[in-house]
Design brief:
This protein has about 190 residues and is an alpha+beta fold. The chain is built from three helices and six strands; from the N terminus they run αβαβββαββ. The protein has helices at about 1-20, 45-60, 135-170; strands at about 35-40, 70-90, 95-110, 115-130, 185, 190.
């Protein structure tokens, strides 16, 4: 009896997930012409650089050693953190902040051509930092910073995946349509060609 109940529960859960539109994300697609890749950052101890290297390796990329020539390069051009007060208490002390993390990156093939042109990814999270309990709020900020770094690595990999899928299946405008597809500018803002 319990075995059939377990099967029925799994079937019901599967149907519920399918009904709400849930789908598993496809595996990361790397460009076929990517070859060996080196992740570079201005900060040699960048946690983002380490996370991207590990994620690319898990996706099947061959990582190139420092100084290797003729390899694709994922360059982290800048990483910027900012903590902006967004709420104050009755004494004018900041008690809620917005933690922002912005990264400028690009991915170039071994021949120097851009696979993913220079662009900016910006993420933010809000957190509370009570003036009378600054010790606990610093650890909350550190936890949020680690979470943002993980999300940043995932965002960059999704952009690489999108570029790989776009180059493997080029999109064409609909027949009879005189408007072209939007082009993503280096800042990530859609523009018309």
């Amino acid at each position: 009896m319990s075995r059939s109940l377990a099967r029925a529960s799994i079937l019901l859960l599967s149907l519920a997930l399918a009904a709400c539109g849930f789908q598993l994300r496809d595996a990361l697609t790397l460009p076929t012409d990517l070859g060996a890749v080196r992740v570079e950052a201005t900060d040699p101890y960048s946690a983002l650089q380490q996370a991207l290297s590990l994620s690319l390796e898990r996706a099947g990329a061959t990582l190139a050693a420092e100084g290797t020539q003729g390899v694709s390069r994922l360059q982290i051009l800048t990483e910027q953190w900012a903590s902006t007060p967004i709420a104050v208490d009755e004494l004018g002390r900041a008690q809620e902040f917005s933690l922002r993390y912005a990264v400028v990156f690009k991915l170039a093939r071994a021949d120097g051509s851009d696979l993913v042109p220079q662009q900016v990814v910006e993420l933010s999270r809000d957190y509370v930092s009570l003036p009378e309990n600054s010790t606990g709020s610093e650890s909350e900020r550190e936890i949020l910073a680690r979470e943002l770094q993980r999300e940043m690595a995932a965002s960059i990999l999704r952009r690489i995946d999108a570029a790989a899928r776009a180059t493997s299946t080029p999109a064409t405008p609909a027949a009879g349509s005189d408007s072209a597809l939007p082009v993503v500018a280096p800042t990530g803002t859609p523009t018309r060609p």
